[in-house]
Every structure is written in C-alpha cells, then in structure tokens.
Design goal:
- Helix content is 42%, strand content 14%.
- With 477 residues, it is of the alpha/beta class.
- Among the domains are: 65 residues, Arc Repressor Mutant, subunit A (Orthogonal Bundle), CATH 1.10.10; 226 residues, 3-Layer(aba) Sandwich (Aspartate Aminotransferase, domain 2).
- The protein has an 8-stranded mixed sheet with strand order 3-7-6-10-11-12-13-5, sandwiched between helices. A 4-stranded antiparallel sheet has the order 14-15-18-17.
- The longest helix has 27 residues.
- It starts with 9 loop residues before the first helix and ends with a helix.
- The structure holds pyridoxal-5'-phosphate.
C-alpha cells in the first residue's frame, strides 16, 4: 500500500489516472467507478484526497454523483456532438395527415423480431409490475363489489387526492376536486380539444410534436400552426406571440417538461411568460405533462399550470410512462373547462377502469411510487446517456442530438441528404425500427431527423445502433 504524502497535487494525479482510464474505456460511460472508500483503499490515499479528486472530475463533467448510488462515468456528449438546430417550421397553418405513417409505426411496434427503437414505450423492466399487481389484488379483495361499478367523473376521490399531492410538488395548489380521471393521456388530449375547438380551428403547437397529439388533431379536423422550439428550452414564446397576432389561434399545446421528441424542459420563467401571454389573449393552454415525473435533475420542475390564474391551463398527466401503459389511467386538471370536460367524459365512456384507480391510489399512498420513481429516474438518465454516446460513436460525424433533461427519447438530426423514411425501410430490413422525423410535424419538417427510444440500453441495442450508423454512412455517400 502506498503511503500518503501531503502533496496538494495527489488528488490531481488520482484524477488524471481516472481520466486516462475513462478515455481508454476501462471505465465506460454509465459505469459506476469504485466508491470513495474502495478507491481510498486501492490507492492508499485518504478519503479526503479521493473526495477532492472526485469533485474535480465532477466539475469537469467526467463523472456524476447519483444520490445513494455512487459515482458514474458521464458521456461528454456536450463536447462531442452539437444539438439540433432551433426548429423553423412553416409559418402557415397545415392540415394534418399522418395516419398512414402512424399505422405503419403501430404495426411494426408489435413485431417481436424487431429491435424496438420506434415507439416511446417505457422499459418494461422499469415498471413496478409486481407491486402494482399486488395492489390490484388487494384492491380486488377490498373493493370486491365496488371495483365493478362505474366511477362517474371526476373519478375516484382517493386517486384524485394523490394526484393533487403530486401536482403540489410541481407548484400547483389545487384540490382533488380540480382533477378528473381519464383513460390515459391520449383520452385527456382528445377531451380537451373537444371542449375548446371546432373543426377547421387553428391550434398552435410546439414543433416537433409527439405524433399521437398530431393524430388527435387530425381526427378533430384541426389546422396546426407549428411554432419553433429550442432543443433544450422548448417553445419559443416570442414566436408564438407573433403567430397569435396574425392567426386566430383557438388553443395552444405544449409538453413543457420533457417534450417528446426533444426531451426539452421550458425554464420556469418561460412557462410563466407563456401563461401570461395566453391569459392576455384568453387562449386556453393544453399542457401535456405525461413525462413530468421522469426528471433527471434534483428537483421536480414546475408546470405552466402553477402560474395559471384564470383557469385557462388544462394540465394532462398519466401513469403510462412510469406505472403501466396498459392500465390506461391519466388525469386532467381542467381549470374553467371542468363542467364541460366532465360531461364529455361521461358521454363518451362514463368512467375509466375502476380497479386500476384503486390500485394506483394505494400504490402512491403507500410510498411505493416515490421509491420506484427515484430508481427509474436514475436508470433512464443513464440509458439516455449511454445511447447518446453510442450514437456519437457509431453514427457519422456531423450528426446532432438532443440533451434531454428528462423522459427517455433522443432526437437525432442526420446529414441533410439522409431521408428518415428511406432509413426506416432500410433499418426494417436490418430488423430495427425507429421513428422517422416526418411523423413529428404536420408539414413534413423533419425529413432528416429520427427519434430513438432510449428507455433501454444493452449489448443488442448497441449493435443495432452500430448497424444503423453503417446504413446512414452508406446513405450519405
Ligand atoms: C407526450 C405523450 N403524450 C401522451 C402519450 C400517451 O399517453 P397514454 O398512453 O397515457 O395515453 C405519449 C406516449 O408516447 C406521449 O409521449
């Protein structure tokens, strides 16, 4: 064992050794490095020397500390790949027509032969399957008869209490009566659009936008005004303000925390600015927050709804990304549209499934949800990081990719001449599916973009990304 000298440079030399090991891939991106105690033993240096070395590496972006877990190697994505450009969609409203592409994605998403990088499905290993199944069994016993009744809008009170408590963490001071249970986020969006729009109306949206929302807009016969976004900060509020002056915008849709496909998070100041802008024009804001719990930072970001003084913001949440997509449970805080939304929900399907409402309420109340979220946030952050570094490693130089601050999707800008639909077909032949950029715009904006689902990362996926990189390199020639 080495004896420690008091040299102030000792921690630097330890940091240099670790950097060299990271550069040589001895410690790989996403991997946990030895704990402070282990490293101190291995190197024969004091704990404080190791702590200083780790702090230096953290400040330089080589490693990151994860609470109660240890230190992990970070991909230095920032220095290796630029972000996609700020989007600049067409300035006129467009009619949406994406059903054929959407059906193609849906069909391929069920093929077990394919490596699934297409739909934004959560990693099944990160769903609390056992716990939620236990909660379902318990609820079935405890509410043997009630579990088979409708729960008319606004839905199960016990669940609304839990949802109101979660919303408080995102800055909303709302009562359980301010929420209504829905069958997932998609139904919530459908109801909101039903309540405030009529066919032919114009709806302003972030561009790119999750294609499920684009399809709902298509079904409603709405015209879409695509507003530019910054890949990290989301919607450009100034551009929206300008668009509102020249178009009779009937509603605005944003995914303020972790846009799909950008992974962007609107800074809180911008959220406030947006809510105030729309309040001045009396325009409703539909805020989709289905990824809100999957943040990578220390703190739950606020939602636009927390700045809403006029009841114009309809906040949509769902448990599809973090508990179970199949249970089909979500919610809306509908603000001033409460009565209309409850009537619509009652008219369309009377009630969302009853047993899952009891089970989810119990799971959250028992503390299981919080515990589970703490784990999966770390895992998703790690997988996004790992997939980002694989994209950088295997795709041709010059690709650009997002730096999501939550969620689990990556948005990749390919060289200009690489058409994402052509790539989709070639990838399919190589047994890989992905989401071509076209489906995220009503006006064919993102021909050379793809979205990758980074919920899972393993050897097989890494090899698929390598194949994809080779296909792209060939297409670029
Ligand atoms: C932004 C966004 N909203 C809504 C949904 C669908 O939510 P749900 O399954 O709860 O209807 C998804 C699923 O990919 C999504 O990405």
């Amino acid at each position: 064992m080495k004896t420690e000298t008091n040299s102030p440079l000792l921690y630097r030399s330890l940091a240099d050794t670790l950097i060299s090991l990271i550069e040589k891939d001895t410690y790989r991106v996403g991997e946990r490095i030895p704990s402070v105690r282990q490293m101190s033993k291995q190197q024969g240096v004091s704990i404080s020397t190791v702590l200083q070395a780790y702090l230096l590496l953290e400040n330089q972006g080589w490693i990151e500390a994860r609470p109660q877990s240890g230190y992990y190697v970070r991909a230095k994505v920032r220095e290796q790949a630029p972000e996609p450009e700020i989007s600049s969609p067409v300035k006129d409203p467009s009619q949406v027509s994406l059903h054929e592409l959407a059906m193609m994605l849906m069909r391929d998403s069920t093929d077990p032969e394919l490596v699934q990088l297409g739909l934004a499905l959560p990693n099944p290993n990160y769903l609390p399957i056992e716990k939620i199944n236990q909660a379902l069994t318990k609820a079935a016993k405890r509410h043997a008869v009630d579990a088979h009744r409708y729960i008319v809008p606004p839905g199960l009170e016990e669940l609304r209490v839990q949802i109101a408590k979660r919303a408080a963490l995102a800055g909303c001071q709302l009562s359980p009566n301010d929420f209504m249970i829905t069958s997932g986020g998609l139904e919530a969006m459908d109801l909101c659009l039903h309540a405030v729009c009529r066919p032919g109306d114009i709806v302003a949206i972030e561009s790119p936008m999750y294609f499920g929302t684009l399809q709902t807009l298509e079904v409603h016969g709405l015209r879409v005004l695509e507003i530019p976004t910054h890949p990290r900060d989301g919607l450009n509020v100034e551009a929206l303000s300008f668009a509102i002056q020249y178009n009779p915008v009937r509603a605005v849709i944003v995914i303020s925390n972790f846009n799909n496909p950008l992974g962007s998070q609107m800074p809180d100041e911008k959220k406030k600015e947006l809510v105030e802008l729309l309040a001045r024009h009396d325009i409703p804001l539909i805020e989709n927050n289905v990824y809100g719990e999957l943040y990578f930072g220390e703190k739950r970001p606020l939602v636009c709804k927390s700045f809403d003084k006029k009841g114009l913001v309809m906040l949509i949440s769902a448990f599809s990304k973090d508990i179970s997509p199949g249970l089909r449970i979500g919610s809306i805080a509908p603000g001033r549209y409460k009565t209309e939304l409850e009537w619509l929900k009652f008219t369309i399907n009377t009630s969302s499934p009853t047993l899952p409402q009891y089970a989810i309420a119990d799971f959250i109340e028992s503390g299981g949800y919080d515990h589970h979220l703490r784990r999966i946030r770390r895992e998703y952050a790690r997988n996004v990081e790992l997939m980002s570094s694989a994209v950088i490693r295997y795709f041709p130089s010059g690709v650009r990719l997002t730096r999501p601050s939550g969620g689990f999707v990556l948005w990749v800008q390919l060289p200009e001449n690489v058409d994402s639909l052509e790539l989709y077909k070639k990838a399919l032949a190589a047994k890989i599916t992905l989401a071509p950029g076209y489906v995220f715009s009503a006006s064919n904006q993102y021909a050379n973009f793809i979205r990758l689902n980074a919920a899972e990362f393993n050897y097989n996926i890494e090899r698929s990304l390598e194949k994809l990189g080779n296909i792209i390199k060939e297409m670029r020639l």
